């Protein structure tokens, strides 16, 4: 039979076989054995899962909405942007799982497919050209396969990372701007008596980062145990904020914490978009907006 007919027949047979996934981007047919795909791709990592909560978006002021756009969380209801290069701030859930968010900007960089729930790609480290297998999971809003890049460059929570298309189809360049390590102050998170604690310490950092989102965790076990306890006890977002905000406020002479810092820390304990956090702070009289985006526990 003609080669074209052979290819059509084979594609048809594999499409009818539940053991295989079509993982090629639009215009390209690629097949993968489902059970051979990484488990994090077949099932969303627990640390990335968001249980939606009800909040009133009308509570968000224009300044809060601007902050939501600046953070650009993939869970925020923002319009897609057609760009050739995009950036994101690395939060704990993505640092932990070796993923990056498909937010309103990065979505435009990665290939799409009409039917494939997962797309196989190649990730390229822009610094040394090293290649890594990657997976785009559009319906779950993440890209998997960046753990080795994060570890290689010792990227902290709050790091600023750029992504753009490579010269070859299906290649995506991951560019984490780095420099010779400098000693920087950063808040280190720990847990004592089931309470989060923060201490400003100096650490060598060789990457660009958001000063209000950088965070260090030297012992992840107690922090993850606290997150699990809060989930098991079904603590709501207000309860989590009442643990986080006063603990962070101790780091500041003004006794207040920036909303981006609060967002970064809350996402260590529970996956949560900035809109929900800001609306909860605004709606709950237990919190006071001091100035700008700074918040503290109410004196009352």
Explain what you see.
The chain is an alpha+beta fold. It has 9 helices and 14 strands. Helix 7 crosses helix 8. The longest helix is centred in the first third of the chain and has 13 residues. Strand 6 and strand 7 form a beta hairpin. The strands form 4 sheets. It has a 7-stranded mixed β-sheet. Strands 12-14-13 form a 3-stranded antiparallel β-sheet. The mean pLDDT is 94. Helices cover 29% and strands 27% of the residues.
Q: What's this model, at a glance?
A:
With 300 residues, the protein is an alpha+beta fold. The protein is 29% helix and 27% strand.
Overall average residue pLDDT: 94
Q: Which bin fits the share of residues in helices?
A: 25-40%
Q: Give the ordered list of helices and strands.
A: HEEHHEHEEEEHEEEEHHEHHEE
Uncertain segments are none
Range of strand content = 25-35%
Radius of gyration based on Cα positions: 21 Å
Taking strands numbered 1, 2, ... along the chain, how are they ordered across the largest sheet?
3-8-9-5-6-7-4
Sheet of most strands? 7 strands, mixed
Please work out how many helical segments DSSP would assign.
9
Overall 3D form:
elongated
How many extended strands? 14
Q: How far apart lie the N and C ends?
A: 82 Å
Structural class: alpha+beta
């Amino acid at each position: 039979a003609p080669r074209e007919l052979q290819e059509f027949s084979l594609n048809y047979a594999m499409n009818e076989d539940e053991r295989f996934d079509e993982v090629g981007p639009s215009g390209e047919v690629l097949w993968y054995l489902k059970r051979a795909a990484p488990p994090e791709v077949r099932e969303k990592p627990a640390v990335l899962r968001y249980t939606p909560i009800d909040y009133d978006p009308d509570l968000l002021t224009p300044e809060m909405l601007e902050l939501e756009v600046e953070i650009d969380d993939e869970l925020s209801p923002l319009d897609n942007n057609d760009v050739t290069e995009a950036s994101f701030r690395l939060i704990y859930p993505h640092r932990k799982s070796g993923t990056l968010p498909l937010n309103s900007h990065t979505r435009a960089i990665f290939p799409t497919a009409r039917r494939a729930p997962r797309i196989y790609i190649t990730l390229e480290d822009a610094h040394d050209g090293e290649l890594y297998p990657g997976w785009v999971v559009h319906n779950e809003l993440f890209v998997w396969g960046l753990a080795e890049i994060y570890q290689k460059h010792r990227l902290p929570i709050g790091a600023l990372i750029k992504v753009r298309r490579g010269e070859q189809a299906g290649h995506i360049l991951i560019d984490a701007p780095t420099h010779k390590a400098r000693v920087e102050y950063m808040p280190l998170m720990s847990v004592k008596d089931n309470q989060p604690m923060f201490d400003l310490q100096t650490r060598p950092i060789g990457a660009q980062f958001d000063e209000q989102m950088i965070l260090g965790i030297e012992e992840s076990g107690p922090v993850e145990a606290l997150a699990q306890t809060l989930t098991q006890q079904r603590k709501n977002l207000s309860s989590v904020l009442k643990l986080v905000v006063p603990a962070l406020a101790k780091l500041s002479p003004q006794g207040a914490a920036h909303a981006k810092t609060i967002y970064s820390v809350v996402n260590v304990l529970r996956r949560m978009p900035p809109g929900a956090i800001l609306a909860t702070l605004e709606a709950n009289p237990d919190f006071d907006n001091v100035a700008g985006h700074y918040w503290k526990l109410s004196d009352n």
